[in-house]
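Sample 1 of the test manifest.
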Amino acid sequence: MANKEIPYKIYLEESEMPKKWYNVRADMANKPAPLLNPGTLKPMTAEELGVVFCDELVQQELNDTDAWIDIPEEIVNFYKMYRPSPLVRAYCLEKKLQTPAKIYYKFEGNNTSGSHKLNSAIAQAYYAKQQGLKGVTTETGAGQWGTALSMACAYLDLDCKVYMVKVSYEQKPFRREVMRTYGASVTPSPSETTEVGRRILREHPGTTGSLGCAISEAVEVATSHEGYRYVLGSVLNQVLLHQSVIGLEAKTAMDKYGIKPDVIIGCAGGGSNLGGLISPFMGEMLRGEADYHFIAVEPASCPSFTRGKFLYDFCDTGKICPLAKMYTLGSGFIPSANHAGGLRFHGMSSTLSQLYHDGLMEARAVEQTSVFEAAEQFARIEGILPAPESSHAIRVAIDEALKCKETGEEKTILFGLTGTGYFDMVAYEKFHNGEMSDYIPSDEDLQAGFDGIPRFPGNE
Amino acid sequence: MANKEIPYKIYLEESEMPKKWYNVRADMANKPAPLLNPGTLKPMTAEELGVVFCDELVQQELNDTDAWIDIPEEIVNFYKMYRPSPLVRAYCLEKKLQTPAKIYYKFEGNNTSGSHKLNSAIAQAYYAKQQGLKGVTTETGAGQWGTALSMACAYLDLDCKVYMVKVSYEQKPFRREVMRTYGASVTPSPSETTEVGRRILREHPGTTGSLGCAISEAVEVATSHEGYRYVLGSVLNQVLLHQSVIGLEAKTAMDKYGIKPDVIIGCAGGGSNLGGLISPFMGEMLRGEADYHFIAVEPASCPSFTRGKFLYDFCDTGKICPLAKMYTLGSGFIPSANHAGGLRFHGMSSTLSQLYHDGLMEARAVEQTSVFEAAEQFARIEGILPAPESSHAIRVAIDEALKCKETGEEKTILFGLTGTGYFDMVAYEKFHNGEMSDYIPSDEDLQAGFDGIPRFPGNE
């Protein structure tokens, strides 16, 4: 098949869709560090985690030995409503850039949540339903995860309570209505509805919120209401596991046409898309079967990889969650309200953190006006209006393609186009009006966050 | 292939995409009546039409003999960026409705314009570019057509001036930003920028606008600026021609799996989606090769087919356009601002009007709250948040499926899901808040529109 003409969009047959998720941890020599109980500083047990998370998801969270996990048939069927997602050859972009590089993107935005988040939302909602729960709670930043979870819960007839980072709630008034269409309740965070929310509001009056705050509130509600559990759209191992469908589909499609990517690029907030996209490729590299150049792209205003510390930290601002070992800006870090493009989480997936720490991945921080320039350029050439988050990956994909133009290298670039920007028009408007600025935290700005990292022996 | 298992989504290969558009007029015994010059009441010549429209599009407009028109390669390649669109088997909806009916929909919303409008936008922009024009002008109602044209013009580097119906401009603040992302200029209509706009504002102060007004303004600008022509997103024969890709793809996909639809349903504003979807099926019926039940669905608040008159009328409120013979509420008809769901045009495609007049099609009017009920139900079950326009077709598809449940008939239903509702959240919010009401014009309400239909011998 290697010489078959490559279409603009490669769609797999439904029969070619993955039947199992791939668990990259199984192939890692250095496993990601376990979650710790912040009281005892001992690894969280399944029982302890079961207070917050659904039982089956706890098993997936702790499982770092099985490389393949069956996808339940009901989830496969739900996937079929919006998957396989297309692997797109960016012929028009290549031509416009006059690059010898071949550019591909895996487009996850063709569903109403507008992003890849639905891949894990349906899995988590499914296991909650299986366990006989009444509902789930969660946080959402840009709103994509909240929308995805609302959709999954509507489908399965589960209650869904969403805490939405206040700045997004205000910037994206219509996101709330979409979630409402799917029957979810949405509360701007921090709120007065929880103890931790009230505390954060006292300590930081006028805060525009952060994912960390919203997580604390959602966890509090889940653990204080009978029949509820908390679910999370990124960061966790289980989420990377579910998101491996992105990479598995991409790899199957590329293998089918004899394409081997040289560079694989993804935006990184908590790491769900990046982890999902690269997992099967990283697996090959870990097993010594292939070699790839992975690039994680993060906003310069929330630079967990490039300026964070690799330490145990809370996943939430309220410090009620377990400790995860990860690249972190400190759970006290709250990104500038000026920053429009999602990816506002202070930490990063433990799995990706370990891979980065082991030198298996590069990370780059990019500034938001250059991200929106890339977004607009991409929209006009490729027709898809991208989410600001996804546009971080576009920025670096274009940069890499332009490097190829200089060097003449015919590299094959694959990037994750995680979603669409239809609910981000306030940010686009700012950009069009020249009202968007860049914010790069100084070392002093970052210090406040680092002060919040818990200190204990071995975590300095 | 007849017994092959039918996937959730049927995607054609790029090689199976249509290379020619199908011109249903060629197979009609009773051709649609020609456009008339309102001054002479004689059929518009190519030369006269060439003042307003691009030359090649004039040829397509007048051509009622050639059944197949080649799609230029550049347009085929643009189509490949977002087509083929999926033909979806609504397994989940069928199950939820417990109907023996088999429901399919052709989903045209997976592109940034959010609808099928892009199919004709790229064609019209392409011919304008070929003719060496500087730019094009147009009107937009819900904003889908304007967005589509902006995308096509950005791709081809053409200037794009959009007149947007004022009520939509206000209800859809972010649509403007999307068009701006694609470099278009957007003016709410009626406006002070044109003579006809100023006149309409004098005569109807406080009007929320209508497609008819916006058309008048866009035509005035096109004909008074060197190097510009006017393009229209619906109603015209050329648009139905371009939109035939919808039906052609649907038919190829169905034939591939041995599926024959019994009922084919589309929403009808100006007729572009309905005409495009049904064309190849209607062609078979006209040639006596097959039999189908076609249903046009229109809003009860703008009921051109079901309560209009089949007469020559202006396509625009300002009465500067040629006369078209069509089902019309009168060019003076301005739909209630209360009506949220697009499909606000007073008239209807001449081709569809003739087919309806000849008894080849049924028409139904539906009320908007029942449309939004169907929209929400569909969103929760099938995952896609539909445009209000498209939801008119969903309403009737569900009604037909429920009839099958009563009678036990295993009908195969095909409907057009023209687009997504991501920019319609103001309307959804109204619906959620119980603030949406239905408006059905009384006969007296309609009289004002009918008074505006031009009177001349044979047009009474």
